[in-house]
């Protein structure tokens, strides 16, 4: 029985009881008429019967009252139990969530200590430098690619969901943006710090037919902000074509910061932040076009060496690892 129903029943019972209590005195006060004349047997027996009935009624009333009092008492008892049970449920729930929290924290701590202690897996330098924008908790699961070409890769960029705009300003490209499990740019400051250690860049791509290609540069460096996050790459290998070579030795450009080698404003034309030359042979931070929508646009996620200037790819991942990494 719910609390509300119980409360309602109690109220109703109390109403009934007050009726009963109100009626009883009236009945008790109703005095038997005093015998005036000499009474015959018939009258006397009637009187006895009336008295009998009256007492019976009183007895019944009394019984009803105690019954009702009992019911009320039971109701109150139920009500109390209900409340106690509810309190117990609340207590259990809060205990459960507390335990859940603790388990989550423990899992976090475990995964962190695993990552921190294993310097070979997804090299630890990522841990020290990427923390500005992204929370450390998620690096182990998300930034590390242990499968591609020997593993040990730290993701620096991903395009696959298509809900995050990459048409952003200098400051956002400097610090990084997006979501770790979805699309993101790790941030140019982080790229600079991470690639002070000689690094290799690997770019993996997928088209809308499900085919995959890659381009790898065994030498990859991004300079600091004073040097406009200039790109240096060398030693291409792969099957997607060398479409980053054209961007070698160029400064980074974004919306509102035209550092390209062109009279045009490439970042505005290509709607991304990138090492634009004049303008592109690839545009990995371009606009995400879904399905058939690529074809007439040159501001998509392009890699000319594979699909030309107007095919926007379905998925891209850029990842790096130290040159001296041994799988
Ligand atoms: C009332 O009547 C019943 C039978 O009709 C009898 O058994 C009982 O004793 C009577 N009670 C009184 C108080 O007269
Ligand atoms: C490119 O690879 C060659 C051969 O492995 C190596 O000698 C050269 O130093 C590499 N260049 C850069 C810039 O890392
Ligand atoms: C790149 O930026 C630096 C300063 O940050 C500047 O000196 C240099 O001229 C720029 N290079 C190009 C090609 O614009
Ligand atoms: C990129 O530029 C650097 C510095 O000028 C050079 O050493 C390197 O070989 C160039 N890479 C390619 C692929 O041309
Ligand atoms: C796509 O690019 C190619 C090569 O530049 C060009 O020939 C073709 O007309 C373009 N297609 C569309 C739909 O713009
Ligand atoms: Ca320009």
UniProtKB/TrEMBL annotation:
Record-annotated Fibrinogen C-terminal domain positions: 113-324
GO BP of this protein: blood coagulation
Subcellular location: Secreted
SMART domains xref list: FBG
Recorded coiled-coil stretches: 43-109
Swiss-Prot/TrEMBL keywords: Coiled coil, Disulfide bond, Glycoprotein, Secreted, Signal
Signal peptide as annotated in the record: 1-22
Keyword Glycoprotein appears in the UniProt entry: yes
InterPro entries named among the record's database cross-references: FIB_ANG-like, Fibrinogen-like_C, Fibrinogen_a/b/g_C_1, Fibrinogen_a/b/g_C_dom
Any one of the GO CC terms: extracellular region
PANTHER family, per the entry: FIBRINOGEN ALPHA CHAIN
UniProt protein name: Fibrinogen C-terminal domain-containing protein
Record organism: Esox lucius (Northern pike)
Gene behind this protein: ANGPTL7
């Amino acid at each position: 029985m719910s609390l509300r129903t119980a409360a309602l029943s109690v109220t109703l019972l109390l109403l009934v009881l007050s009726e009963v209590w109100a009626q009883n005195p009236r009945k008790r006060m109703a005095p038997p008429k005093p015998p005036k004349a000499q009474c015959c047997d018939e009258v006397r027996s009637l009187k006895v019967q009336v008295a009998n009935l009256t007492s019976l009624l009183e007895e019944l009333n009394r019984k009803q009252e105690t019954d009702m009092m009992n019911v009320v008492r039971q109701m109150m008892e139920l009500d109390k139990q209900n409340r106690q049970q509810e309190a117990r449920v609340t207590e259990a729930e809060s205990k459960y969530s507390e335990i859940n929290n603790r388990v989550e924290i423990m899992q976090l701590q475990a995964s962190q200590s695993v990552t921190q202690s294993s310097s070979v897996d997804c090299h630890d330098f990522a841990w020290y430098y990427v923390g500005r924008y992204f929370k450390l908790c998620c690096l182990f699961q998300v930034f590390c690619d242990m499968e591609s070409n020997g593993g040990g890769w730290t993701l620096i960029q991903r395009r696959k969901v298509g809900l995050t705009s990459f048409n952003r300003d200098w400051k956002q490209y400097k610090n990084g943006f997006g979501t770790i499990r979805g699309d993101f740019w790790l941030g140019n400051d982080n790229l600079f710090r991470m690639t002070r250690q000689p690094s290799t860049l690997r770019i993996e791509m997928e088209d809308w037919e499900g085919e995959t290609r890659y381009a790898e540069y065994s030498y990859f460096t991004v300079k600091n902000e004073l040097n406009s996050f200039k790109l240096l790459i060398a030693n291409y290998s792969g099957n997607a074509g060398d479409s980053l070579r054209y961007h070698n030795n160029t400064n980074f450009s974004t919306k509102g910061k035209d550092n390209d080698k062109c009279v045009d404003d490439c970042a505005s034309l290509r709607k991304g932040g990138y090492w634009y030359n004049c303008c592109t042979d690839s545009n990995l931070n371009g606009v995400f076009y879904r399905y058939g929508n690529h074809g007439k646009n040159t501001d998509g996620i392009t890699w000319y060496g594979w699909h030309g200037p107007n095919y926007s790819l379905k998925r891209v991942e850029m990842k790096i690892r130290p040159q001296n990494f041994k799988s």
